[in-house]
Amino acid sequence: MLVQLKSQVDKIVFRRPSQFIMSTAKLMENGDFRVVPVVDDVLGEKLVRKTANGKLVYRRYSGTEGGKDITDRSTLQKMNEVYNLLISIEDIVEKSGQNFPFLMSSGASSSFPSDSSRNLSSQGFSTVPFSVQSSVKQSIASAPSVMESRALREIPRLQENADPFYVKDIGRGCVSIRHILDGRFLRMSTGVPNVLIFRTNENDAKSEIRFDVRDINIPTEAKDLVDKVKQVIKERRRKAF
């Protein structure tokens, strides 16, 4: 009975992770991991990672249908990335003496961040225990920027519901964009018009992909970064007139 109850209790909640931008990822008290729609939709698709009979299983639930095994590598990889992130954050929260449940978000605001808000040394993950969400804002000192392939290290902290993108001028009217939570990186080419350069991490040259911003086949992992570049350039042009 207690085990069943723990499977229904949220421990870490991450709203709109970049891997599942329209969903909420949850680490449950019993260790299960879930990806559910942001909007509470009974018919929405739900992804679950759990241990059943001593075996790790990945299941996809759609509407009222029974679960089906998840087999596509892309979804499995994204689930594992977010799961490992939440496990790392769970460890940080426990060591820092913070309370559970623990809530964070990478949802971008509609406004362009000011110079002061882009001062990364002063930014932070805003974490709000559910019992005091309306009145108390808490933060942790660090969170992982990359999951399995890199050691846990401190990264700048990001305000809940603040813009999760770090924008930097690189000259000739061009900018680069870095996602603060997962390290994905995109920059405009300063030499070739309309060309964008994407990396899964700023320092990972092997992952580099170049593409035309007008291309309809923009890499899925880069779409939110491309949208941010367009937003920044549009805003700057508007202010120039």
Structure description:
With 241 residues, this protein is of the alpha+beta class. The chain has 2 domains: 160 residues, Arylsulfatase, C-terminal domain (2-Layer Sandwich), CATH 3.30.1120.130; 76 residues, no CATH class. Helix content is 20%, strand content 29%. It has a 7-stranded mixed beta sheet with strand order 6-5-4-3-2-1-7, with helices on one face. Strands 10-11-12-13-14 form a 5-stranded antiparallel beta sheet, with helices on one face. Strands 8-9 form a two-stranded antiparallel sheet. Strand 11 and strand 12 form a beta hairpin. It is elongated. The N and C termini lie far apart (65 Å).
Topology (SSEs and partners):
Elements: H1 2-6, E1 10-15, E2 23-28, E3 33-37, E4 45-52, E5 55-62, E6 68-69, H2 73-96, E7 102-105, E8 125-127, E9 138-140, E10 165-171, E11 174-179, E12 185-188, E13 195-199, E14 209-212, H3 223-240
Parallel strand pairs: 1-7
Antiparallel strand pairs: 1-2, 2-3, 3-4, 4-5, 5-6, 8-9, 10-11, 11-12, 12-13, 13-14
Q: Report the average pLDDT across residues.
A: 74
CATH architecture call of the largest domain: 2-Layer Sandwich
Strand count: 14
Question: Which strands sit side by side, in order, in the main sheet?
Answer: 6-5-4-3-2-1-7
Per DSSP, the total helix count is 3
At the fold tier of CATH, the topology name of the largest domain is Arylsulfatase, C-terminal domain
The domain count comes to 2
State the order of secondary-structure elements, H for helix, E for strand.
HEEEEEEHEEEEEEEEH
